[in-house]
Design a protein that fits this description.
Blueprint lengths: L1 E2 L1 E4 L1 H5 L9 H14 L3 E5 L5 H13 L4 E7 L2 H11 L5 E8 L2 H8 L3 H18 L3 E6 L6 H14 L3 E6 L6 H14 L7 E6 L6 H11 L3 E4 L13 H10 L1 H4 L1 E2 L7 H12 L16 E2 L2 H9 L18 E2 L7 H10 L6 H17 L5 H13 L6 E9 L7 E8 L4 E7 L3 H13 L4 E9 L8 E9 L2 E9 L2 H34 L1
Parallel strand pairs: 1-10, 2-3, 2-9, 3-4, 4-5, 5-6, 6-7, 7-8, 8-9, 11-12
Antiparallel strand pairs: 13-14, 14-15, 16-17, 17-18
Helix pairs in contact: 2-3, 2-12, 3-4, 4-6, 6-7, 8-9, 15-16, 17-18
Length: 518
């Protein structure tokens, strides 16, 4: 099994992306986690770019013990001096030098001839080699460079002492087949390539960074340069987690692996997101919130029966505890009853069927139904096991800051009779309760009223709890709805049903005692 080196440039190329800058303490924290993740190389920064970068690279070099620490440098003496000054404190230092080799870069950016670029590349490799035995050379924009010129430059820097040759697709230009062909050609045609590590550095401008990196591995590349969550310049770099899990999930195809501890992937991804404040898209491969989440009833049933039906890798393999069954309007009965059991509710089949219908109705109103939503549904259902003397059919409320609140409520009695009353009140809830009192015809006092959001967000359910008293009896009632007025009415009706049930039960008990006394 070939072992592919993982060169992580989150702290250098990744940090250059807009909105992803980190302070020195955050960089050290991230470097420690990258070390725990098991990357082979940490590119700690571009030491010559600023005093802050120099200090960060130096601090990371002093901190990290179990992997190579590299600093990027242009092929200039002052850059290499600065890089070495910062990185020399680590046990395994690397100097990473680069110069552009494509015609467009040489002409418009460097304003140098190919011969001048060749001489500078070779001389600066020798210069870096005086400091450090581990020197990586990158031909910037290699994917748009002339192959014969690339061959000439690579052979020159290998003879000058470079130990790693990196082939960047700096602007994300090539396709996977082109990248594979380039790597294969370089391995076969560059003298000395068999004695050094051949690396690739792919950007994601056309969405092909990971695909190009994997194609390069198949063609013989031995190191890939990547970032956590794929952050980086413009559209980003190849995503470390996607490359690693491709290799681990499809060892049969790639015949390669890494020394990455993949159970640290999720933690590393979330740490970077928290440090930079850049949110991970929910549909992001491997580490997105939806990567191991299932809402479709067919998928949920399959995963619950055997996770391999819809999961080609386990959530545990990246450091998650389990798959997430998202309960929504597409979910099936199987996943819903499974969640009921997980929440500790052992309800009979009839109650489960009734709850499932209520769940579906709620899911049509909400995007996602939470555990607290389900718990509230169950509590409400258990309270509804009491016979319904009255049931809400409809209500119409008129309210505002310039009119008197009015509520029209229609209840259905247990014998099927529909009764409607209209009342005014200090507010819409007060008006509704008064209308219900008129229908019921009992002297009812509202002792307590409370409302609580079951979950957060605009589509949160409101759970209303009321306490009422009548003729010396006090009972409670609960109502649940995404509409707090409806929840209030349901809670009040539920309390009245409880009151009637308790009164009838007391009367029966008193009658039984009188019969026994006779």
């Amino acid at each position: 099994m070939r072992m592919i080196k993982i060169f992580d440039t989150t702290l250098r190329d990744g940090e250059q992306s807009p909105g992803c800058s980190m302070n020195i303490n955050e960089k050290i924290e991230m470097a420690r986690q990258l070390e725990a993740l098991g990357v082979d190389v940490i590119e700690a920064g571009f030491a010559a770019s600023s005093q802050g970068d120099y200090n960060s690279v130096k601090a990371i070099a002093k901190e990290i013990k179990n992997c190579v620490v590299a600093s990027l440098a242009r092929s200039l003496p002052q850059d290499i001096d600065s890089a070495w000054g910062a990185v020399k404190y680590t046990e395994n230092p690397r100097l990473h030098i680069f110069i552009a080799t494509s015609p467009i870069h040489m002409e418009y950016k460097l304003r140098k001839t190919p011969d001048e670029v060749y001489e500078q590349a070779v001389e600066m490799t020798k210069y870096a080699k005086k400091y450090c035995s581990d020197v990586e050379f990158s031909a910037e924009d290699a994917s748009r460079s002339d192959r014969k010129f690339l061959k000439r430059v690579f052979e020159g820097v290998i003879k000058a002492g470079a130990t790693t040759i990196n082939v960047p697709d700096t602007v994300g230009y090539v396709s996977p087949s082109e990248m594979a062909d380039l790597i294969k050609w370089l391995r076969e045609n560059v003298e000395g390539m068999d004695k050094v590590t051949l690396s690739v550095h792919c950007h994601n401008d056309l969405g092909l960074a990971v695909a190009n990196s994997l194609a390069a591995i198949l063609a013989g590349a031995e190191q890939v340069e990547c970032t956590v969550n794929g952050i980086g310049e413009r559209a980003g770099n190849a995503a470390l987690e996607e490359i690693v899990m491709n290799l681990k999930t499809r060892r049969d195809f790639y015949g390669a692996d890494t020394r990455i501890d993949n159970t640290q992937i999720y933690k590393t991804s979330r740490m970077l997101s928290q440090i930079t404040g850049v949110r991970i898209p929910p549909n992001k491969a491997i580490v997105g919130d939806n990567a191991f989440a299932h809402e479709s009833g067919i998928h949920q049933h399959g995963v619950l029966a055997n996770s391999l039906t819809y999961e080609i890798m386990t959530p545990e393999s990246i450091g998650l505890s389990r798959s997430k069954m998202v309960l929504g309007k597409h979910s099936g009965r199987h996943a819903f009853t499974q969640r009921l059991r997980e929440l500790g509710f052992n309800v009979n089949l009839d109650v489960a069927d009734s709850l499932f219908k209520e769940f579906k109705a709620l899911a049509d109103k909400k995007k996602t139904v939470s555990d607290r939503d389900i718990e509230a549904l169950v509590r409400r259902s258990l309270s509804l096991e009491i016979p319904e003397a009255y049931k809400l059919e409809r209500y119409v409320i008129n309210t505002g800051n310039t009119i008197t609140p009015t509520s029209s409520v229609t209840l259905v009695k247990s014998d099927g009779t529909h009764v409607e009353e209209v009342a005014i009140g200090f507010g819409p809830v007060d008006a509704s309760f008064k209308a219900i009192n008129m229908i019921v015809g009992l002297p009812i006092e509202l002792e307590d009223y409370s409302i609580e959001a079951v979950t957060g967000g605009r589509d949160a359910q409101g759970e209303v709890s009321v306490k009422i008293s009548s003729n010396g009896k006090t009972v409670k009632g609960y109502g649940l709805s995404t509409d707090i007025l409806e929840a209030s009415i349901l809670a009040y009706v539920n309390a009245i049903n409880n009151l009637i049930y308790e009164s009838e039960r007391t009367e029966k008990s008193d009658s039984a005692e009188k019969e026994e006394a006779k």
